Amino acid sequence: MDAWLIPGNTASSLCSATQDDSKHNFCPLMMDNNPEECSVCFNNYDDNQLRPRTLPCGHTFCSQCIDNANKNGQLTCPSCRAEHAATAATRFPINYGMEALIRKLKGIKVVPEKTLPAKPIKAPARGISKKLHSMVEEQKSSISSLITSCEEVLSQLREYRGQLGDWKTCHLQLQDRLYALVEQNESAMKLLELEDTSVVDMTTQGEEGKTQLQAMLGSLDTGNTAQEVFMTINEVDQCNMEVENWLQKCQELFPDVKTVHTSVKVQETIREALEMMTTETGATADPVHLGNSASSIMNKVQEITGEIPQKQLTVEDLCRMSEPVKRLVEAGRVLAVQEDQDGRRSARITLQDGQLYLHPLLPQPTPAHAHTLQESEVVGVLEPSCTLAFLDLGWAGSTRGRVTIRLTPEIPLARQFVLLCTGQRGHTYRNTKLLRVGVKGQRGEHVVGGDYESNDGKGGAPLLPDLQGRYRESGRAGAVCASGWPGSPRSTQFAITTRDLQGGRQWPYVFGDVVSGLDVVRAAVNHSDITEVTVVDCGVVLPL
Prior knowledge:
Mean pLDDT: 83
Strand content: 15-25%
Radius of gyration: 38 Å
C-alpha cells in the first residue's frame, strides 16, 4: 500500500493492524463506521477542498487526497488498487449521496439513553396554515434541488476548464514546434546563402580564367620572334595551371553535402506539415448535432471531437474500427496489456493495409494518453477455427518482409506457436534467428528457427504440457511443421518448407501453412549466412 494512504503509518504497521482481522476477510480502512470521514486522511468531508469524489471503481475519497495521489496522470485506488487515468480530482464526479448523508448526520444529535424523554417533544407550532407550511416545504425542496443541479454543472464546468487547459498546453507545444520549423528553415536558408556566395565567387574566377585563355589563344598566333613566342608559351602555361586548379577546386567544393542535405530535408518536413495542415483546415466538416441538451458538458465535447474517453475503449470498438478508433490505432495509442507475477507488459496494436495486427507483449512503458485493453480480451476475438500469425524476417540491418501463416488452433503446436508470437507466457519468437537450412537447393528444402531459449538450436523447451494430437501431413512448399517430434526438449522449434517433396513423401506434424511471404523465406534461404536472418517482429492478425 502506498505511503500516502495513511499519514504517519508504515507498511509494517498496516500489516500488523490487519493481521487480527484477516480471518474476518475485511480491512479496517474499508469499515463504514465513520462514513463522513475520508478513509485516507481521516478528515471530515466538506464542500471545499475535501469534497467526496467517487472513482470509477466505486470507492470514495476527498478531493485533496485524490490530487495528492495523482502521479503523471495515473491514480491508484487505495482500497482495491485499481488504476485510473486523470489529471485532477475534478475529473471524478462528486458523491452527492455521501454529501446528503453527511448533512443528515449533522442534523442528528445523539442523546444518552437515560436522558431520553418518555414522549417526543413536538416542535412549537408556527402561526401558519398547513397549506402555507406545505408551500414552504415545497420551496425548500425546490431550492435544494437547484443547489444540487448547480453543484453538478459547476463540477462539469471545472472539468471542462481542465480540458481547455490541456488543449491550451497542446497548442503552446505545437507553437514551439512550429517555431522550431521556422528556425530550421532560416538555418537552411543561411547555408544556401553561403553556398550561393561561394558559387558566385568561383563563377567570377572561372569567367576571368576563360577570358585569359581566349586572349592567350590569340597571342600564340601573333608572335613574330622566338623570344615573344617563348614568353607567350610561359604565360599560357601559367594560365592553364590556374584554370586547372580552378576546375579541381570546383569539383572539390561543390556541391556542399551538408547544405544540400539540410535544404532538402527541411523542405520535405515543412512541405509535409503544410500539406497536412491544408488537408485538415481545408476539409469541410459535417455539422455536429449535439442532440440531447441534457447531456453533460464533457459528453458534448467528446461528441464534437469524436474522441473516445480513456478507459472506455472496448474490444468491440476495436473490431468495428470506427474513424475515431482508427485514428487512435494509427497514432499508436491503443495497446493490449497484461499483468502477472513478472509485472506489467504491453503489446502494440497496429493497422496496415486495412489489417489489424497484435504484436508481442514486451516490458515497455505505456505511452501517455494511451487506451489499454486486456490482452486476454483481445486474443479472445480470434476465430476458434483458424488463426493468422506473422513473422517479420530481416537481415543486413533491415526488415525484408512479412510471412503470414494460417494456423489451426485446436492443434497443440499451433496454440504454442500463437503463445510465442504474442508473448503471453513471457517468451516470444521476437529477436530469435533462423538456425539452419535443410537440403538447400533440393526437393524438400526447408529452414528451421524458433529457439527462444538459447538462440543456437540447442533450446526451445515446450510451453504446453501436452503437445500430442492429430496432426496432418503435407509435401507442399509453405508447410509449417515441427522440426522434431512434439514433446521433445526443442519442441518450439519450427520448420518452413520452401520446396515440394517428391515421390509421395510428406512432412509430419504440420500445424500451419504460409499464405503470403513464402518469397521472403526463400530469399532468406539464399542469404549467405542463414544465422544472420532474424525474426525482427511477430504477432497475430486480428479479425475486423
